[in-house]
Amino acid sequence: MEKKAVIITGGSSGMGKTMAKKQAELGWHVMVTGRNHEALEETKKEIQTFEGQVACFQMDVRSDSAASDMIKEAIKAFGRLDALINNAAGNFICPAEKLTPNGWKAVIEIVLNGTFFCSQAAARHWIDQ
To answer: How many CB atoms neighbour CB 57 within 10 A?
Structure first.
């Protein structure tokens, strides 16, 4: 069976890392993205079960151009893209009444805009295919 390829944003920690591990166990090619290069590389070492299975892409989902570059890098690494898991999130563990306007803007930028930018870039690729 031909290997499938998935991108998991925010894939170097928490739920994203767990999802990346599971996809790798199932034999998928996995690209993990995130802002911390060291965490991405550590995740790659932990979950890669065959050469070329895991790729890392350091990025900030708040950038629409980074989202487009992410798709290009996945295609370059795996020759295909079958799925996108928008896991990247920003949150602050505090009561809502204590969340600053800048904190709220950061959450919206990552969770809402980041999800849109990554989904749009993936959709453009799939429509072209």
So the answer is: 21
Q: Is residue 52 left, alpha or beta, with left meaning phi > 0 and alpha meaning psi from -120 to 50?
A: left
For the record, the structure tokens of 15 come out as 């739920």
The pTM assigned to this predicted structure is: 0.93
Buried b (16+ CB within 10 A) or exposed e, 23-34: bbeeebbbbbbb
CATH code, domain with 12: 3.40.50.720
Q: Which domain, by its residues, includes 83?
A: 5-128
* CA trace torsion 48, 123, 9, 106 (10° rounding): 170
- Helix, strand, coil share of the chain (percent; to 5): 55, 15, 30
**Nearest in space to 89 (alpha carbons), one of 1, 8, 3, 5:** 8
Tokens 């965490």 map to which residue? 39
Sites in the chain below the pLDDT cut of 70: 1-2
